[in-house]
Design brief:
- The chain has helices at 2-7, 16-22, 101-110, 112-148, 153-167, 199-209, 252-290; strands at 26-31, 36-38, 46-52, 55-59, 62-67, 72-73, 87-90, 94-100, 171-179, 186-192, 214-218, 222-231, 234-243.
- By secondary structure, it is of the alpha+beta class.
- It folds into two domains: 2-133, Jelly Rolls; 151-290, GAF domain (Beta-Lactamase, 2-Layer Sandwich).
- Strand 4 (55-59) and strand 5 (62-67) form a beta hairpin.
- The model has no long low-confidence stretch (mean pLDDT 84).
């Protein structure tokens, strides 16, 4: 247990003696994939450290971020019993370390010097979470504005891709492929500054991905992340982002943003399809009237 605490930057301010004392104030909890840890708007009186596995944080059913081993969450529960601002669900099997606020208060009084450093770390962690949430909300809001404007599907796709790449640090390019309901194929609708990707490579990628998000490396070139654009379980298209290097091209927060934007794109495509259908009907009616 102490080794797990030591690996977390959040608890690194405590010396060996303090960590030994902390052990009596913590609990281990195991969760299965999809199991809820806590729900939005329920009372929170504790925080969690991820000893192993991953946890997804969501609000009103929309995933905000994905946390991994060594990350903490629910930390606002240390400062009172306020209602949770989001829900937490285990993404696969996970083991968590749980600390209740009353137990933490007793511990911090016993180790005041380390306690002050711990609280400073807590403020930094909360600030970082707020910045991540802000970037997500800005990306969703700006994408919504693009969808709401009167753009063609190609212009909308291009603008959404450029806006998304602004959110992805060190991205080297991107492609948007859209399903053509007449041919049954995926057409290139947007492309920006690509070093790795082209239409042919993108076509192979979407065949491999199907309805899944995947990460793929190209030796000596870099890596790509592909996210399907889904509407009512139907694939409307794909957004593919590339980066230099063969490590995972996106942080977990960037993956969440890309996934959210991809699904917003699907809503935009439903809108442009409806507009095209309406224009086709109007043209048909005019021609029908002219032939009478």
């Amino acid at each position: 247990m102490i080794d797990t605490l030591k690996k977390s930057g959040f608890f690194s301010v405590f010396d060996e003696e303090a960590l030994q004392g902390l052990q009596s104030h913590i609990q281990k909890e195991d969760y299965e994939g999809g199991q809820e840890i806590f729900a939005e708007a329920t009372e929170g009186d504790c925080m969690y450290l991820i000893a192993s596995g991953q946890v997804e944080i969501s609000k009103k059913g929309r995933v905000l971020t994905r946390l991994e081993e060594g990350d903490i969450f629910g930390e606002m529960g240390l400062f009172g019993n306020d209602l949770r601002s989001a829900s937490a669900v285990s993404a696969g099997r996970s083991r968590l370390i749980k600390i209740k606020n009353k137990d933490m208060e007793k511990f911090l009084f016993k180790y005041p010097d380390s306690g002050c450093k711990f609280l400073f770390n807590a403020v930094g962690e909360i600030s970082q979470r707020l910045r991540q949430t802000s970037s997500y909300l800005v990306a969703v809001y700006e994408t919504g504005k693009i969808i709401g404007a009167d753009y063609s599907s190609q212009e909308m796709s291009q603008r959404i891709l450029i806006r998304l790449m602004d959110e992805i640090k060190d991205s080297t390019g991107g492609i948007v492929m859209i399903y053509n309901r007449y041919t049954g194929l995926f057409d290139l609708h947007a492309s920006e500054n690509n070093l790795i990707l082209d239409e042919e490579k993108a076509s192979f990628l979407i065949e491999e991905a199907g309805s899944l998000e995947i990460f793929k490396t190209y030796k000596g070139e870099g890596s790509v992340f592909i996210s399907p654009s889904m509407d009512d379980e139907k694939i409307k298209g794909y957004i593919i982002i590339e980066k230099k290097g063969t490590e995972s091209p996106l942080s977990s927060n960037e993956e969440i943003i890309t996934s959210a934007v991809a699904n917003q794109l699907a809503l935009g495509l439903v809108k442009t399809d409806s507009k095209s259908d309406e224009e086709a009907r109007e043209l048909f009616e005019r021609k029908k009237f002219e032939n009478i």
